[in-house]
Amino acid sequence: MTTTNPSSGDTGDTGETGKKGDPGGARPLRADAQRNRERILAAAEAVFAEKGPSASTEEVAARAGVAIGTVFKHFPTKQALLQAIMKGLLGRLDGEMAELAADEAPGEALFTFVTRMVEQAARKRTVVGLLAETGVDLQVASSVRMLRDGIGTLLARSQEAGTVRDDVRLDEVIALLTGICQGALHAGWDDDLRQRTLAIVFAGLRAPEARR
Amino acid sequence: MTTTNPSSGDTGDTGETGKKGDPGGARPLRADAQRNRERILAAAEAVFAEKGPSASTEEVAARAGVAIGTVFKHFPTKQALLQAIMKGLLGRLDGEMAELAADEAPGEALFTFVTRMVEQAARKRTVVGLLAETGVDLQVASSVRMLRDGIGTLLARSQEAGTVRDDVRLDEVIALLTGICQGALHAGWDDDLRQRTLAIVFAGLRAPEARR
DNA sequence: CACTAAGATGAGTGGAAACTCATCTTTATA
DNA sequence: TATAAAGATGAGTTTCCACTCATCTTAGTG
């Protein structure tokens, strides 16, 4: 689950092209290039997680152990690199959500997911920073929409199960989620505070008859 | 309430210095200088409110109708300018809070204050942006502490009045507040969404016996 | 092993933004 | 009104960072 998908790229290739006469099609990617691309992604995720999206591309290159030109060969723009990270992060989150929707009791799935996402945000400034600072009108918009729809499903299930108030709309949940994710990366947020803060929000979301 | 306090400065002068022999003390400030300082502050507040703290100092100068050197004469650093704005903003907020603590019913004062602060945040990226992006270990720390203490008082009053659960601590309230302020400046936040989001949080804060 | 194209390299370029300073302008006072 | 000091000006300096490109290196193939 924690391994990055090796077939993901920003060229949008699907499968291999055995046929020639395909101008501008995706080439198979050499072995070392593949390795470097992964190193860069990993390094970028670490660096941006620590210092936020304003960290320099050179630092990413250094951490990955490659020259700066290599980074720009794989990701022609800093934005593109950021997008690739976002895509991976959101993809993983999305998978986790689908799993949760299947396994967990339908009433609690939403709470579990929100908790996990906030936990992630505390470690990864990237998601949050990107959503906030950079324009959200990226190509990533589709991934965001996927995530949004997924949360909508979890919410609907919880409402059917009677654990969440019926008058709560998806917008508010998203708003609360992004807000708390933002807050989670401030100094002074530890596990305890996160838990207590979420408890308040969850209490606010819960249907009166389902409160403990 | 909306007028800026003319006697506020970052030199920390209190009253006039009629006595001489005050090395390094605050000079009376010439008339045009005073006017420019206010213009710069107003312009900076507007610009940073629109574009966030990453807006350039030159844009502030342009909006204020002065040269860039003038800005740096009054505020030797961009940080200093940001701090001055923060100080003013927090001061106003603090006054509003004191008023609220006196006037309003003790049980609802906290809710009213939080609502107002979030409303402000939606318009002023500065407060939020600063608290988030720049280090909070500024000289502004004292102003922040003042605000924090004030909120603590409002919270305590509400708990005494029985409208807020006893196990809620100040940390969580602050966390929620900053988080929602962060969220409030995202695209798509309108009055309705803000109100609904706050309603959820308030429901979570309210004591069981005080719920409507 | 030889060869070639894909890939890696890193000094260099361009631009943006914070900050400086020599020079000119204005206020306040004698 | 004359004068001196406070203040304003804006071109220039410095720093930093995204991005480029001519050149060298290496993986894959016959």
UniProtKB/TrEMBL annotation, chains A, B:
SUPFAM superfamilies: Homeodomain-like, Tetracyclin repressor-like, C-terminal domain. Residues 34-93 form the HTH tetR-type domain. The keyword DNA-binding applies. It comes from the Bacteria. Residues 1-35 are annotated as: Disordered. Residues 1-11 have a biased composition (Low complexity). The keyword Transcription regulation applies. Residues 56-75 bind DNA. Keywords: DNA-binding, Transcription, Transcription regulation. PANTHER family: HTH-TYPE TRANSCRIPTIONAL REGULATOR BETI, HTH-TYPE TRANSCRIPTIONAL REGULATOR RUTR. This is TetR/AcrR family transcriptional regulator. It comes from Streptosporangium oxazolinicum.
